[in-house]
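Intended use. Records like the one below are meant for learning the mapping from a protein sequence to its folded structure. Do not use them to infer anything beyond what is encoded.
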Amino acid sequence: MEQGKLISEIQKYIDSNGGMASGYGWYIGVTADPKRRLFHEHNVSERNGPWIYGGVSSDRVARDIENHFLQKGCSGGQGGGGPDAKYVYAYRINLHTRE
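Structure written out for the chain above:
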């Protein structure tokens, strides 16, 4: 997926699920295994928790997208994942998630 398209999809999803100022905020990250990161490590509810992920062509593109959302106010941090981290994921933070 192209960088601009994934940025747009994630932004639309965040906006349609309360936006950036929706109580607990949003977390953004990169990974090689989005389901493991979201549902096992961050404890996001697969059925009830607002979450999104998408793949891109390289870890560099993924990190650029992550940085875009970090600058917009998402929680998270740069430097996660390795060279195979070609997925960008986001979820709304709540009482049950682990950042």
